[in-house]
Amino acid sequence: MNKEKEILKQTTSIPKTGLIENKDAFKENNISSKLDVEKIRLDFPILKIKVHGKPLIYFDNAATTQKPQHVLDELNKYYREYNSNVHRGVHYLSEKATGAFEEAREKIKTFLNAKSISEIIFTRGTTEAINLVAASYGYENIREGDEIIISALEHHSNIVPWQMLCERKNAKLKIIPLSEYDELIIEEYEKLFSDKTKLVAVAHTSNTLGTINPVKKIIEIAHSRNVPVLLDGAQAIQHTKVDVQELDCDFFAFSGHKIYGPTGIGALYGKESLLEKMPPYQGGGEMIRHVRFEKTVYNVLPYKFEAGTPDISGSIGLGAALDYVNGIGLDNIAEYEKEILQYATNELKKIDGLRIIGNAKNKASVISFLVGNIHPYDTGTILDQMGIAIRTGHHCTEPLMNYLKIPGTARASFAFYNTKEEIDLLVKGILKVKKMFE
Amino acid sequence: MDTGTIQNIENEIIDEFSVFDEWMDKYEYIIEMGKMLPRLDEKYKTEEKKVAGCQSQVWLNSKYEKGKVVFEADSDAIITKGLIGLLIKVLSNQTPEEIIKAKLEFIDKIGMKEHLSMNRSNGLTAMIKRMKSDAAKFILNQRTN
């Protein structure tokens, strides 16, 4: 173990971030947060590029985030200096790679405040994590006639795996309705429970509406009836602190690429007691202890659920991203994003005919909107010509769009490297869109 | 009715667009085309006539008249309508064989190639595919009649 610690010290390095303590510098900008956003933007090389000859204004962070130099450096360093397969080798490179890989797992455990690394399973992302739970926990525990509760604002990745499970097992899906304020109706949620309810799967934060769900309450209600809860955390951890012990969620899924890490990596948190009892998801190397043709013995947690060579560089990149975020501080990020969201909401509301979709009291920095009768595709195409990247369409929440009776929305989603000046340009852009189509 | 050849019409469009330096002028022209596209009869706005693979709703109706295929279409997004309008200008009132052969290089030449991209939310590729497969069906029907 000590030898591991030595190797760990050499692998990933501490990032230098744009956090300064001097509040006076920001008085003119009326931003009270501690972030030196101009300095932070320098950490993200892609923010310098030009799109159609204009500076990139990247407002599609809910789809994926940009990567700081620190993450890019660590990815590069891995392949340049210590690339090797993990867990198996006796040589130097292998030990170093294993150290860094497990160090990344440790970082996730700390980030989520999980009890043990046995509870952190690397996956390709949120979608795979949810599929893992559906295929393993779901298949083992859901019987004919059982019920699973999800909500009206879920992403397809937290709908389809359960639909598939229900189809296989002849079980039923029940949907928590949405209020006119774009919030889940908790009284109705309670009414959905029956003695057949076996699982609740709900988003922490809505990618389309920005609504932050009252997940602690949702979990309490489920637990009072002995029903476990899975949280889709894809839109959560980049905006706010998530403490899985404090929430007491049974499963929590997230994606690395949404928190400034590389694509293709994510994690599933699960309570050890649950994961112990769950059958493996995929079979193969790494997830086994012994293999014999007569009988194979599976590996311990978390490896039981990690078949094959893992995304080693991805996990290291994700660890580096978490270091970077910690360097800035989630509290500081949350505070800054709150200001940006407020500013953007106020400015957009001034535009005649603009309708914000998603007006919950508690929101993440996501704004879905419609400009009069203009189709979001038209809005997005013109904004793109101006260098502004937003997302248009149903955002993988088609049932929600049908529920709200709209074809889709234009969505601007902000990160801590977005500025008020960029929002001003978005407003200008939308006014131009209005002129061109009305 | 004497419509020019597909290549001639494409060249006309390329010429029209060559006067535009600014993206804004190009898009304003496309938006104008979109606004001018005749409305599609509601009876054709069915699931069957919908072109799948578009972020906006797109309906296409094809008719076979005197050896030529006539297209009419509609969409709820105006830029899509404009691009459809250009496609109809080029492909409508042509023989099925000519339609199937058409390479439609004009789209790239007028700088609208991004609307042809592999991005699944993009309808133009799906639209062209539908127009060609509808044309092919008319050939098939011809042969079996």
Helices and strands, with pairings:
The complex is a heterodimer of chains A (438) and B (145).
Chain A: H1 2-10, H2 37-42, E1 50-51, E2 54-55, E3 57-58, H3 69-82, H4 92-112, E4 120-123, H5 126-141, E5 147-151, H6 160-169, E6 172-176, H7 186-191, E7 197-203, H8 215-223, E8 229-232, H9 244-247, E9 251-255, E10 266-270, H10 272-277, E11 288-290, E12 297-298, H11 312-328, H12 330-349, E13 354-357, E14 366-371, H13 376-385, E15 388-389, E16 391-393, H14 398-404, E17 409-413, H15 420-437
Parallel strand pairs in A: 3-15, 5-6, 5-7, 7-8, 8-9
Antiparallel strand pairs in A: 1-2, 4-10, 9-10, 11-12, 13-14, 14-17, 16-17
Chain B: H1 6-18, H2 23-36, E1 58-65, E2 68-75, H3 78-91, H4 96-101, H5 106-109, H6 123-144
Antiparallel strand pairs in B: 1-2
Helix pairs in contact in B: 1-3, 2-3, 3-6
What does this structure look like?
The complex is a heterodimer of chains A (438) and B (145). A seven-stranded mixed beta sheet of chain A has the order 4-10-9-8-7-5-6, sandwiched between helices. The N terminus of chain A is likely disordered. Chain A folds into two domains: 176 residues, Aspartate Aminotransferase, domain 1 (Alpha-Beta Complex); 253 residues, Type I PLP-dependent aspartate aminotransferase-like (Major domain) (Aspartate Aminotransferase, domain 2, 3-Layer(aba) Sandwich), CATH 3.40.640.10. Chain A is globular and about 70 Å long. Chain A has 15 helices and 17 strands. With 145 residues, chain B is mainly alpha-helical. Chain B has one domain: Sufe protein. Chain: A (Alpha-Beta Complex). Helices cover 50% and strands 11% of the residues of chain B. Chain B has six helices and two strands, in the order ααββαααα. A two-stranded antiparallel sheet of chain B has the order 1-2. At the A-B interface, α13 of A face α2 and α3 of B.
